[in-house]
Design a protein that fits this description.
This protein has 335 residues and is α/β, with parallel strands linked by helices. Helix content is 41%, strand content 15%. The radius of gyration is 20 Å and the shape is globular. The structure holds NADP nicotinamide-adenine-dinucleotide phosphate and guanosine-5'-diphosphate-alpha-D-mannose.
Length: 335
């Protein structure tokens, strides 16, 4: 009998790749979807038809307990979140609720449905739990590269809420003996990345400029540095963490950092253009507090999970630009 996984955030980038990975591994995969219109459900059925759906919202504890109780999963992956950092300043309270209290809601659902109480540690055959933690928690970094022991100094309401979810996951592991792990993931991208994130904003603009549909690309801080990898690689790391004997937290990244300026240079270069002719400064994109530099030390994941990224930065940028060119010229599927 195959294992059963429940994924929150199934409609997002990582939900798509993780569902595909787990299905290929023989899992029965369930996704939590919110809302009443059914449009999210039909979107999932078009992209990953073999996924079963259950309704629920990270803001509604009862719905999370019902979902876990109905699915009876072996593994729960909590990927659902408000994931766009700038939005977290505009909707700080909502971000705290979804990204912070939503983790509490999922952990409680797993604890209650798994029959775990304070006086009894987790029974064998317990539900395993994965929390989508983030390199944003390192924020104003105390050291470079950042590893599992690097202190947190979050710079956005998003990062603060993620830190709460991270420590709570650790606390449930220590309090109840739960197999609960956090992946501290650095930026990961793909053709399925939301159009508001800088990689996809750039690749879409490059494709539109190539097709004569746009001329200028307004951007904010070009000096910010990130450790960018491919989402398809990162979901494999999530699965490996959950299937380890010992529940532990891991940093997942490439160990290589690039600036937004490097990103535009490679993306425009891919179509033979000079970014300086097209990129313009947009002060509205400057954040109240910036994370200047992220760079992972993924040594622990390499040693204990046998994980390493398969796509390098230039290949990643090329992949996204090509996908958007195909999509906008009508020969690819919309992502
Ligand atoms: P994404 O594409 O923005 O997907 C976010 C998902 O969260 C969507 O499926 C969304 O569902 C769901 N969601 C939002 N509010 C919800 C709520 N109230 N209840 C239930 N679901 C809700 O994000 P992603 O890039 O796949 O990232 C997955 C997770 O990893 C997130 O937690 C993110 O913060 C974290 N993370 C991402 C990265 C990265 O570089 N991608 C790095 C580190 C950590 P709807 O369709 O219903 O809106
Ligand atoms: N989005 C965006 N738009 N970012 C811009 C722009 C712009 O026009 N111009 C410059 N940037 C800079 C941002 O200031 C930031 O320093 C960097 O590009 C990356 O921004 P995003 O792609 O929006 O990602 P992020 O690093 O803020 O957050 C992503 O990675 C985190 C992990 O490190 C998200 O996926 C988070 O959910 C994730 O936790």
């Amino acid at each position: 009998m195959g294992r059963r996984a429940l994924i929150t955030g199934i409609t997002g980038q990582d939900g798509f790749y993780l569902a595909g990975h787990l299905l290929a591994e023989g899992y029965e995969v369930w996704g939590l979807v919110r809302g009443q219109s059914g449009s999210r459900a039909s979107q999932i059925h078009q992209t990953v038809p073999d996924v079963h759906l259950v309704s629920g919202d990270l803001l509604d504890q009862g719905s999370l307990i019902s979902a876990v109780d109905r699915v009876q999963p072996d593994e729960v992956y909590n990927l659902g979140a408000i994931s766009f950092v700038p939005l977290s300043w505009q909707q700080a309270e909502l971000t705290a609720k979804v990204n912070g209290l939503g983790v509490l809601g999922m952990l409680e659902a797993v604890r209650v449905c798994g029959g775990i109480n304070a006086s009894r540690s987790a029974p064998p055959g317990q539900i395993r739990f994965y929390q989508a933690s983030s390199a944003e928690m390192f924020g104003k970094v105390r050291e470079t590269p950042q590893h599992e022991g690097t202190p947190f100094h979050p710079r956005s309401p998003y990062g603060v809420a993620k830190a709460y979810g991270h420590f709570l996951t650790q606390n449930y592991r220590e309090s109840y003996g739960m197999h609960a792990v956090s992946g501290i993931l650095f930026n990961h991208e793909s053709p399925r990345r939301g159009a508001e994130f800088v990689t996809r904003k750039v690749s879409l603009a490059v494709a539109r400029i190539k097709l004569g549909l746009q001329e200028k690309l307004p951007l904010g801080n070009l000096s910010a540095r990130r450790d960018w990898g491919f989402a398809g690689d990162y979901v494999q790391a999530m699965h490996r963490m959950v299937t380890q004997d010992e529940p532990e937290d891991y940093v997942i990244g490439t160990g290589v950092t690039h600036s937004v300026r490097d990103l535009v240079e490679i993306a425009f270069g891919a179509i033979g253009l000079d970014w300086r002719d097209h990129v313009v400064s947009d002060p509205a994109q400057i954040r109240p507090a910036e994370v200047d530099l992220l760079c992972a030390d993924p040594a622990k994941a390499r040693e204990l999970l046998g994980w390493k990224p398969s796509v390098q930065f230039a290949g990643l940028v090329q992949m996204i630009v090509e996908s958007d060119l195909k999509m906008l010229s009508g020969s690819g599927t919309a992502s």
